Amino acid sequence: MKQNCHIKLTDFKNSSSTTSTKTLASSCINLLVNNHLMKTMIDSGSDDSFISPEALAKISPQPVIHPANKDFQAMNGTQVIVSGYVILTIDFDKNLSDEIIYVSPQTNIDLLLGQTWIKKHQAILNCKDQCITIMTRNGPRSIRYIPAYDDNSGDICQQYNIRLVHDVTIKSRTVQPVDAICPSISNADTVIFRPQQQLQEDLSILIQNSLLNIYHHRTTLYIVNHTDSDCVLPKNSKIGKVRHVPLTNLCCNVTESFESLKSDDVIPHKILEDINRLIKHLKPEHQQLIHPILLQEWKVFDISKPSQATDLKTKHRIITQDHPPIYQRPYRVPESIKQQQKELTDEMERNGQISRSQSPWASPVLLVKKHDGSPRFVVDYRKLNSITIRDSYPLPRMDDTINKLAGARYYSKFDLKCEYHQIPIDSRDKQKTGFTTSYGLFEFNVLPQGLINGPPVFQRIMNEVLGDLLGHHCLVYLDDIITFSRNFFLFASAFRKVYFYTNHYETIKT
C-alpha cells in the first residue's frame, strides 16, 4: 500500500502560490551533495526531501534511482510527480550523512530538505541570525542563509570580507595564487569578488575582480606584483569583499565584476565581429557571462602586429658547449622563389623578429609550402641541432589529457598565432640562429621553427604562464590551451583566469 506524503506547494514549479523568488532565496543555503554544490532549501512544510532531475544530472557517477513506495500530494491536493528516490551524501559544514532524496521534476530548487532531515539532525532555523544549525557529535554546526537579493537596488544586501589565510610573499614581477578565507560563507558556487583598492594602491599590486567558488570557507585568488621588489602581505590581511549572487540573477550582474573598457579603447569592427561569432552558439545567459570577458581582453584577438611575451622567467637557450661555430652556404634558390624569400625576410625584419647579423654561425633557408599553398620560412638547423644539448622537459601525455577531460560539459580552445615567434631568444645565443639568404646574413630575436629544443622550451614557458591553473579547469599542449568544466559558471571563472594570465604575459594571440 502506497502512503500519502504532503508537500508545501510553494516549493514546486507551476504553483499558484504567491511566494516570491526573493523569499525563497533568503531561506536557502549552499550544501555539498555527493561533492557537488547545490542550492538547498530547508522546508519544515514538507515531510520528505526532494531533488530536481537537473541537479541530479550534475552528479557523477549517477546514483541509482529506486522506485518510490508512496504517493506525493501537495497541500492543495494536487498530485506531485516523483520518478523514484536516490541515496545521497550531504555535507553540512564537514558533517556527512546519507539521506533518502526523492526525484521530482516539479522541484523549484536544486535540493529541498524536509521534516525527515530536520528531525534527524535536530535542525534549527534561526531567522534572527539568518542561519541554519544542526546538532552533531562534535556540537552544533551552522551555515548562513544565502543573502537575499534586493530587487529594488539591483544589488546584494550584504558583502563579506575575504582575508589571507597565511603570510604571503609575492615575488617581483610574478603572478601568484594565494589562499583566502571567508568566515561568513561556508560553500558557494559563484560569488563576485571585488578587491580592496587602497591595498592595491599602497603596495602597487594588482588583484583582479573575479568570480570565485568557495569550499569550506576557502578560496583562491591571484595577485600580480608588477614591481621590481618582493611584496609581503601578513596573515589576515583584508584583500577585498565577496557578495553572493543567486544563479537566477547571475547573468545580469556578473558583468559588474569586470573592469569596464576605457572610453578611448576602441575595439576594431573586425574583432567585434569575431567575438560575436565565437559565442553565437551559446545560450543567451551564457553569452552574457563570456561576452564581457572577451571585450575586456579584446587585444588578445589583435594579430595585426606580432607580439613577444614579456616578464618570462625562461628564455630560449642554445647550449653547444665549446663547439666551434657552424657555417653553411645558402641553398640555391630559383629566381621565382627569391622574391618570396626577400618579402618574408623584410617582413620579419620590420616586425623585429630578425636582425641583420655579423654572426660566425650560418644555416641555410628553405621555403616550404603550407596546406593553403602559402610559403613557410624554414631554416635548416639540422647541423646546429646535432651539437645542441637536449632539453628533457616533458610534453604532456595525450592519454592523461583525455582522461582529465572526462565528464566535462563545457570547453574552449585557444590556438596561439605564430606561437614560437612570441618567445624571445636569450641574447647570448641569438648569433647561433644565424641564417643565410641571397640578400645577406640574419639572426633571430625570437624562437624560430626547426630548433631541437623548441617544443620542450615552449611547453615549459606555457606551464610557467598558466601555473596552478593547470590540471583543474585548464590544460595546455604546446600552443593549444583547453579550458573545461562541468559547470558553466566555474567554466567562465576559469576562462577569465586563463585570459588574465596569458594577457599579463602578452603571449596569446589567437
Q: What do these coordinates show?
A:
With 510 residues, the protein is α+β, with helices and mostly antiparallel strands. It folds into four domains: 117 residues, Cathepsin D, subunit A, domain 1 (Beta Barrel); 86 residues, Deoxyuridine triphosphatase (dUTPase) (Deoxyuridine 5'-Triphosphate Nucleotidohydrolase, Chain A); 32 residues; 171 residues, HIV Type 1 Reverse Transcriptase, Chain A, domain 1 (Roll). The N terminus is likely disordered.
Give me some keywords for this one.
single chain; 510 residues; alpha+beta; Cathepsin D, subunit A, domain 1; Deoxyuridine 5'-Triphosphate Nucleotidohydrolase, Chain A; 7-stranded antiparallel sheet; 6-stranded mixed barrel; 12 helices; 30 strands; 23% helix; elongated
What's the number of structural domains?
Answer: 4
Q: What is the second-level CATH architecture of the largest domain?
A: Roll
Strand elements, count: 30
CATH hierarchy, class of the largest domain: Alpha Beta
Decide which structural class fits the backbone: alpha+beta
Largest sheet at a glance?
A: 7 strands, antiparallel
The low-pLDDT segments are 1-26, 148-157, 246-265
Spatial strand order of the main sheet: 18-20-16-14-22-17-19
Helix content: 10-25%
CATH superfamily of the largest domain: HIV Type 1 Reverse Transcriptase, subunit A, domain 1
The third-level CATH topology of the largest domain is: HIV Type 1 Reverse Transcriptase, Chain A, domain 1
**Given the C-alpha coordinates, what overall shape results?**
elongated
Task: Give the rounded overall mean pLDDT.
Answer: 77
* H/I helix tally: 12
Question: What radius of gyration results from the CA coordinates?
Answer: 29 Å
Distance between the termini: 64 Å
